[in-house]
Amino acid sequence: MFKKVNNIFLVYYGSFNTKSGSNIHILELLRNLKKYTDIVLFAPGQKSVDRTLPWIKYVPVIDNKYLVQPSYEFMLSFYLLYSCIKNRPDVLYLRQNSFPFFPIILCKIFKIPSIVEVNGLVLDELKVNPDSKSFTYRVFSYLALRSEKFNYRYCDRIVSVTDKLRDELVRLYSIPKDKVYVINNGANTDVFKPLDRELAKAELGLENSKKYICFVGHLAAWQGVEFLIYASPLILEKCSDARFLVVGDGVMKDKLLEITSGLGLSDKFIFTGRIPYERVPLYINAADVCVAPFIQERNSKIGLSALKTYEYLACGKPIVASSIPGVKDLIEFSGGGISVTPENPEELAAAVVKLLSNESTRAVMGENGRRYVVENHGWDGVARKIMDMCRDLI
């Protein structure tokens, strides 16, 4: 018999006052799940948050970087308790980040089926975060580790974004393998779609005569953007008309600017800083090649299902990306790019030059990548898989 899921509570601990991949993920999930059921998203309500976003219940917090998460966990307990009494959800879906405890406790008390989505491991984040040695960060990390252990044990299902991450969860937390379902990330193929390259360049004020290599994403240590910078002299040696777009912001930005300046390449790179989500496709479409030079640490062990790689392909752009589990698989299955050894500027440069030098290869890879993402990795498909899981639980 077909089971109807009437409503879902979606619980998120990230902040909507910044643009990030996790925010895009949760909002796309919300928008697509809304097609199939009633859904409410609970999220921290800082003063600077855009409150025009629909179907979000903003929970008041203390707007201080050290107190946002503790105060959110405290206030969320009252908001969730009241909401469960007033309109009990069929399923509670929690994205694991920060240090949530109460949502799963509440689910056990009210016998509400629960799903926890996992995109990474706290231990791996600790290794590559530049603030990892600070006392505050270590306290928060300790709580996050305890939260992981508690939630993975007591939830009903776990969604992992990669096979490798699923295997690590099973190994580290002794979780039954059949409790963990792998659902990769996706792309909004209506927003991220091929556009005329010359028109995109013109709108962004970029030189039409140049060839652009584009990186999009949060400038964090694990993204490996410095290896694109180290590769750039080798690329420029073969393609003097190449230029580099680094789209995004983050803790590594100043360091990356310093490296670029030290190599005397500041005039070859454009660091855009944070830009609106809806303008990201313009930068991707202005590029000839897109890159994802992830480092090995943190990434190789758990694999990656990186939003940028799906969005690059959805725009019909060939990609050069580190040969990380998940990313390498995407490139091989789609035929949309070239995978290279992580942290190897020479190999990265050679792959970029190969694509810049052959327009027909770029076109074929771009068509392959777009087709593959549309058929296999749209957000609607992700939402339908989650709905199937919810129906199994109720």
Automatic annotation (TrEMBL):
Annotated GO MF terms: glycosyltransferase activity
Enzyme class, first EC level, given as a word: transferase
Domain Glycosyl transferase family, residue spans: 196-371
Pfam families to which the protein is assigned, alphabetical: Glyco_transf_4, Glycos_transf_1
Source organism superkingdom: Archaea
The EC number(s) this enzyme carries: 2.4.-.-
Stored InterPro entries: Glyco_trans_1, Glyco_trans_4-like_N
Alphabetical list of Gene3D superfamilies matching this protein: Glycogen Phosphorylase B
Keywords from the named record: Glycosyltransferase, Transferase
Start and end residues of each Glycosyltransferase subfamily 4-like N-terminal domain: 21-190
Annotated protein name in UniProt: Glycosyltransferase family 4 protein
Species, as recorded: Methanosarcina baikalica
